[in-house]
Fold:
Amino acid sequence: MRDSRSLTRQAEDFFSRHPGVSLMALGSGEHVESLDLSPLGLPATYLPAEQNLELAAQYLVLNQFAFGGIGVPRWVLSDLYLLPGAIGLLRCPARMLEPRARERLGLADEDPAIGAAYYAAPSLTPGLFIGVSLMSFLPGGGAGAWVKLLTLRMLRAKRLRGVAQWDNPSVRVHARLGPLRLVGRVPGGHEYGERTFVYETDVSDDARVVAAMERRLVLEPTRRVAVTDLPALSGLLDRADAGEVLHLVPPGVSDGQVLVREG
Structure:
């Protein structure tokens, strides 16, 4: 309970530093009863996607803007995001967005806008969700980690599996929730397959999440591998596929090196 209160205080501090930002979720109307709309005791508003077409369209524009050629198509947003699940959102006045995102949306200062968003898909394994899409256009830091954590709390997730690239800045955001256990290669391949890996995070331990979010979780790496050393990184995935326990420790990547803890 003490650790949950610490997380709540951290979240309250984030929102106090970003006045005008509010927590919301967008998904099929029938899911409203399945979500925790008071994650960490904070209020969240549920927006049925059937009645919020403009917001869904705004999410689509921002996702395609953020991810370019692998941005989500409209039918995938409807069929595989909104119909089976819900997207966690940090919403704010458009004036708070990074200029490039605001320009893309063409909004006036006080128009409501998506500042950050996270989608994790339900899986066949109870309590396990699959991270699909994280994006943030709120300057000042922290929004990506908070929209991810609060969305996972709304979903009542216990474990998370996600896909990342060794050289992607998002690795540092993912590691804000704790160590990333290397699972192996992406099932079925990936557009960036040679530099992509699957990780898992245990989000059920509040004490560890608190320490990670406060950047107090200090675990010394036993090995450092350059993000450009793809043969060595591929070897790590071979070891993970074989069942060896390997973690990326916070912050995950530093000075162009992947921080690995063996054992």
Observations:
- Residues 69 and 206 are 36 Å apart (CA to CA).
- The chain has a mean pLDDT of 94.
- DSSP finds eight helices and eleven strands in the chain.
- The two ends are 30 Å apart (CA to CA).
